Amino acid sequence: MIISCKHIHLGSPARGRAFLRRAIPVFFGALSIGLTGGLQAQQLAGTEIKIGVVTPVTGSAADVGKREAIAAQAAVDRINASGGIGGVPVKLYFADEGGNPQEAISAVRKVAGDDKVLAIVGPHYSSTAEATFPLGNRLKVVQVAVASSKPGVAKANRPYAFRNTLTEDKIATAVVKAAQQKYGFKRVAIITDTKDAVARSLGTAVLPGALKAIGLEPVTGKDPVTFQTGDLNFTTQVTRLKALNPDAIGLGALGPDALNIILEARKQGMTQPFFGTAPLMEGNMPERGGKAVDGTFAGTIWHDSLNDPASQQFKAAYAAQAKKMYSSEFTQTPDYYAANAYDAVYMIAEAIRKAGVQNKPDSLAGDREKIMEYFSKLHDFNGVASRGFNDDGDGVKDVLIAEAKGGHWVLNSGPR
After folding, report:
1. How buried is residue 114: exposed, middle or buried, by Cβ count under 10 Å (0-12/13-18/19+)?
2. 3-class DSSP assignment, residue 219
3. Where in the chain is the domain with CATH 3.40.50.2300?
């Protein structure tokens, strides 16, 4: 078999070798999924295997949440088309968490208590995960968040909390180095959300730490410019940033807020580049912001320009499902959160297949515990963008650097 890399610029030979190291095991992982078809297991009881999906399909994160739902359903459709798990079809039970902690708690209670799912894909944000992970431990049901990336959230909620994503400190280190290499900045100002958990962590700890690692201190010191999620007017904050005359601005912000900040900065005549981490890649910033956001740096663990076999398989499955579910301009192309959700479904399916799950009403508690124990030892999964979990319950993944260009996120390097 030949792995084609013709659709992605890998830069140096070293980056090319790094990509191939990532692509080859993923390729064989795709083969293992494809050739085993319906994920054969011991004979399972029941007429369906229940998996919960708790994701925001309303609120400011609705587009990204819908993409996660599409991807999860795409994975289930592939599994069921090949015979399900042990001959039993998989069914997803969805609940909207709206990006709100209280709604997320209600959503987890619904799918875990009323629907009696074996495991849950979700929730989305770190702020919602901080609310639902303790509940999951009390209910003894695995949750696999696919976007939460505030450092320490899963570690503080062992053993049933898992996150199939990288923590922001690992992404920030790579992004800051890449952005500094391109722009050569020395004076960096930071603006941060004080409400959202992961954005607040980024602005107050993660980005300052990444800058310190390359010998820089933010010109905002320990007093970054602040706002709150959902603010509609950033005139005052940008005026303060402009007065600091930085070379670049670090964003402790979610994608929709970051877009509004950058647009206000351009309105006030600021031309400096912006950079942030994974949250910038939700909200369709390049598509909505156009030239104003060109040059913005962010980090990811998967991108739709990748064409290794597993990515091709995922994109085809996603495209088919996106025509039938939440179809819109902003759900047609999968992002890395969608890839995480797709992989999370396959991880749960693998655990059900290999861990001795029985799928009987009276075995629910034991089945959930078996999935948790399997996940706690899962270090060699071969997915689209996932290899398993570390001892803290966080994902093991590579970092890819993305830059906003011409209305899209474009990779500017191979895996780091």
Report:
1. exposed
2. coil
3. 2-166+306-397, 168-300
The model's pLDDT over 320-354, given as tens digits with 9 standing for 90+, comes to: 999 999 999 999 999 999 999 999 999 999 999 99
The answer as to CATH 3.30.420.10 being correct for domain 2-166+306-397 is no
In the chain, % of residues over pLDDT 70: 89
The contacts of residue 362 (CB under 8 Å, 6+ apart) are none
In order of 105, 113, 124, 236, 343, the CA distances from 139 in angstroms are 12, 8, 19, 45, 24
Strands (E), 167-239: 188-193, 225-227
Which CATH number is 168-300 given? 3.40.50.2300
Residues recorded for the chain = 416
Q: Is 110 helix (H, G, I), strand (E, B) or coil?
A: helix
Closest by CA to 151, choosing from 87, 222, 95, 201, is 201
> pTM (2 decimals)?
0.77
pLDDT of 207-221, one tens digit each?
999 999 999 999 999
pLDDT 10s digits, 138-161: 999 999 999 998 889 999 999 999
The predicted-structure confidence for 91-106, as pLDDT tens digits, reads as follows 999 999 999 999 999 9
Cross-strand partners of 53: 94, 121
User: Given the structure tokens 């990509």, which residue do they identify?
Assistant: 19
> Quick one: which of 72, 138, 47, 123 has its CA closest to 349?
72
